[in-house]
User: What shape does this take?
Amino acid sequence: MEKKIIRTSKAPAPIGPYNQAVQTGNLLFISGQIALDPNTGNVVLDDIKTETRQVMENLKAILTDAGIDFTHVVKTSIFLMNMGQFAQVNEIYGSYFKDDAPARETIQVAGLPKNVNVEISMIAGK
Assistant: This one.
């Protein structure tokens, strides 16, 4: 199995021993993204909508670098610190998918890296 590592400066550099994304065959596996501004390295925690938008923009940059877009996403996982913020996260998340949304689960967790409120990972097909 051949795999290709996806790295772009338009999304945050990994903060641990992982890659932004790995492509194998026709599948692209994108690591969980948090609201790190790729230009400054700072966490964007203004409010949950702004935080979610930064996460989605980071994911968009990785998809773009891989030569695809949100229409190719088949599965997402959303990790939330507070399920009470689900509606606001869902509103921003949903605005990135025009017609066919991917399969998804949303899970409330006890903690996330850098004390963020939301993390999203994706699987896309080429």
Observations:
- The mean pLDDT is 96.
- The radius of gyration is 14 Å.
- The helical segments are 48-65, 86-94.
- The first helix runs from residue 48 to 65.
